[in-house]
Design goal:
With 253 residues, the chain is mostly beta strands. The protein folds into 2 domains: 133 residues; 72 residues, no CATH class. It has 1 helix and 19 strands. Strands 1, 2, 3, 6, 16, 17, 18 and 19 form an 8-stranded antiparallel sheet that branches.
Length: 253
């Protein structure tokens, strides 16, 4: 070896991509803020040849180690691409687009102190009006609006009735829609720089391929930064000689 290291103190910045085939991805997202990236080698157990001969019954005549379970990866992160987020949520992800549109005189039935669903979400602040079934205008201070989820709640009897008419504008909105609660898994590829703080030198860490799925509950309402965990077996793709590769060099940057 060119040099020896008595200790290694790694700080990594890794990029991530899905790897559905053995071809190495060339476009990756990141770096991802991984708070855990733990790998374990394949599990092995001994396969013993036990003596059944007089004088040595029960003794081991020969033994070999055989692999019984592939190496595993367990990772946690709190920044992520849409693909990673979908895996953590166990979801399909697709683009969400809502065009601006006006809803005129939509008919609703309201009850005092109760939220009533409106035919639309992401409602613009301007242009909201409520009328009775007889087209009498209701003052805005007689009801509350949840413009994001699309609800109205009367706080005065003036806003209560059957066949009430509401007019509003749906605002243009774009983003991502996650259909969660599914069985999801994917092959991941991780690659990036690894700084050895003990020596001030740089290397590269690569996880060639790992078949991962969500490995813990996801709390939608706990608050704080979104985080999640994935785990699964390590895979050695065609053209690689191991599922993980760490290169340590004397390069200081």
């Amino acid at each position: 070896m060119a040099f020896e290291r008595s200790q290694i103190y790694l700080q990594c910045a890794l990029y991530c991509a899905l790897r559905p085939s053995d071809a190495t991805p060339t476009q990756l997202y990141g770096p991802i803020n991984f708070t855990k990236l733990e790998t374990t080698p394949p599990e092995q157990e001994s396969d013993d040849l036990i003596s059944n001969m007089a004088g040595s019954v029960g003794e081991v005549l020969a033994t070999v180690q055989k692999a019984t379970k592939p190496g595993q990866i367990s990772l946690e992160c709190n920044t992520m691409s849409s693909d990673l987020r979908a895996l953590i949520m166990s979801a399909d992800v697709e683009a969400f687009n809502q065009a601006s549109a006006t809803v005129t005189d939509a008919v609703i039935d309201t009850a005092l102190g109760i939220w009533t669903k409106l035919p639309g979400e992401y409602i613009a602040a301007a242009g909201i009006s409520l009328k009775t079934s007889g087209d009498v205008a209701v003052a805005a201070d007689k009801y509350l609006m949840d413009r994001i989820a699309g609800y109205i709640k009367p706080v005065d009897a003036a806003a209560v009735g059957t066949g009430m008419k509401i007019t509003f504008s749906k605002a243009a909105a774009a983003g991502e829609a996650y259909s969660a609660g599914k069985t999801k898994s994917a092959y991941l590829y991780l690659n990036g720089k690894a700084f050895d703080k003990a020596t001030g030198t740089w290397g590269i860490l690569t996880v060639e391929k790992a078949s991962v799925s969500n490995s813990q509950a996801y709390d939608w309402v706990v608050g704080g930064w979104m985080k999640g965990a994935l785990s699964g077996p390590l895979v050695t793709p065609l053209g690689a000689n191991s599922p993980i590769k760490f290169v340590a060099t004397d390069f200081t940057g």
